[in-house]
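On clarity, I found the account of how folds are encoded harder to follow than it need be. What matters is that the chain and its backbone geometry are given together, residue for residue. I therefore recommend that a typical entry be quoted early in the introduction. An entry of this sort, consisting of the sequence and the corresponding backbone structure tokens, reads as follows:
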Amino acid sequence: MFQNIPQVKLGIVAVSRDCFVISLSEKRRKAIVDSYTAAGGSIYEAKTTVENENDMKKALDEVRSAGCNALVVFLGNFGPETPETMLAKYFDGPVMYVAAAEESGKDLINGRGDAYCGMLNCSYNLGLRQIPAVIPEYPVGTAEEAARMIADFVPVARAVIGLKSLKVISFGPRPQDFFACNAPIRPLFDLGIEIQENSELDLLVSYRSHKDDKRIPDVVSDMAKELGTSGNRYPDLLPRMAQFELTLLDWAEQNRGSRRYVVFADKCWPAFPKEFGFEPCYVNSRLTSRGIPVACEVDIYGAVSEYIGACLTGDAVTLLDINNSVPKDIFESEIQGKYPYTLHDTFMGFHCGNTPFCKLAKGASIKYQLIQNRLLESGGEPDFTRGTLEGDIAPSKITFFRLQSTSDAKLAAYVAEGEILPVATRSFGGIGIFAIPEMGRFYRHVLIEKHFPHHGAVAFAHVGKPLFTLFRYLGIPDISFNQPKGMLYKTENPFG
């Protein structure tokens, strides 16, 4: 299977204003590299220090020859604002700028670099040239502090590299009455993402062509091993699902074209289960756990959001409905007084069964889609509505987020950190009780007020910081978050 998450190859280039001592930048650059390497990182140290445009060209040739796809530009002293910003203009990848703090009050004549001042000119010049770059919250630091900034940059760089070479493959139009899963796709092209839209019939034809594929038994065996005895409730279903998994993987490999990375946004109801003979949820979960998100209900922006989460965390992600409120009796018996949340801070995140097995609590298993069973099999003995992966989602830190286009084709995003509580849901599907501080206000004044759909991507870690940095780098003008109490939203009634 192809590698669907980019590998970041970092390079660092030091810059120096020609009226400053060049050795100061070089010495400080080496100290950063040593500190970053000692912490377990890997970074290519360009030996060319940039004072002018010719140096800039030479440094770019050097990092390109080294295979670097992400770059740190280090202002070891004041720095030359034109060539240092041209590095970002001509480098084909994400760039971060950091600057050196002064080291000692004993050396503030020849040893003073003035990079604190130089960063202002650097930022001004980036703005003049309209060049995107990552600048940390406080971009001036010692070698150890700069090394930590670089470590924070890596997941952001990974996501930028991935999005730049991503293709979204979709199958079918959105289901009826699912306008929320449809949005203008032009903003994705503006980000450099390609989209290949296909019919459900294309997928069905490809699925049937994989009948009796010799690889099916191996996939069935892998599925059975993952599920274990208790999770494998329908062994007869595994060959059908294995056939579908191979169909998607082959489609991705054969249709990547000029792109390196792929995500799917597939229609999964109402026609799918009857024609294919199963619900695709478990297969979707397996691919998502391997860094190839498969979003439900042709949610193209959901698939891209999941991919961002996978790049940032290097871990499995999921896509859930922001689904239902937590009943008051559960809150009072299981949450109140035990966790620092109000009832309105909590909700249940749910989907039919697409959350990866590794993120579910003990007891998860293959089941059937209750709602579709009522609709398509009249509530009888389930057959083709089987295939969901169900269970409570395991307790974890989480970040709920989404990248979305508005109806007038402008990008917007939200980010909210919280956790999944270790409280039984007593419900069906892949589901968990989520707690996000001030969720009630966030729900009203961001999700509802700004017309976000009901699908949200979930990363199983607190990644609000790199997400916010990434969205700013991508030029998204509206990035919302769950504002703390006392910080009013623009639309919030100040009289309560």
Notes: The mean pLDDT is 96. The chain has two domains: 10-163, 169-481. Residues 331 and 343 are 6 Å apart (CA to CA). The two ends are 54 Å apart (CA to CA).
